[in-house]
Amino acid sequence: MEEKKTVLIVEDEKSIVDIVRFNLEKEGYGVLTAYNGEDGLAKAMEKKPDLVLLDLMLPRMNGFEVCRLMRERGNRVPVIILTAREEEADKVQGLELGADDYITKPFSMRELMARVKANIRRTAMQSAGSSAGAVITGGGLTIHPENYQVYKRGKLVDLTQREYELLVFLAGHPGKVYTRIDLMEQVWNYGYVGDDVRTVDVTVRRLREKIEDDPASPAIILTRRGVGYYFAAN
After folding, report:
1. pLDDT per residue over 51-78, tens digit each?
2. Distance (Å, whole) CA 214 – CA 180
């Protein structure tokens, strides 16, 4: 029997917690809850849920800080940010701190459940395939799929899980151009919804900052203007 997956909801509005918990439990998930950032961080680290739904505007510690500290302390569990604010900077900052995705309130339960399932499925697929895959080289990089490590000229590169997955996908198909919608489907495991393409752009930018000699003039992850991104084999 498959082990029940657990989702941690970190949200200070009880009405939102209640409806999200109801829908998650109906789908067969175990649910943990926290109503402030400090408690959310503690539960994320101690209980090791399979996914965290993280509000940004929280008492005692905001969602940005919770996400930052989780990643600094080595917790790589998928994080979906919940935000009532439309400001682009909030979404970008959350992704910069290591969140995997965001969804803006008010959101539909169908949309939220789809994203929860996609992120948990992606993590499970990655774990199942952890022992497979040949070493990939190119652009001065050496990618070891068996242990999720990437080296640039012999030096280990610290990537988030999503950055790693994007790099492996593109490097596994060198020279092939993928649109943002392609990447949402292949790497994020769901199709284009709203302004999701911004998530792809931010992740590409973060990845370039870590693997390119000159991120402003990339030589590894290139843009085909008006189309999408590709890995330049050399």
Report:
1. 999 999 999 999 999 999 998 888 888 8
2. 23
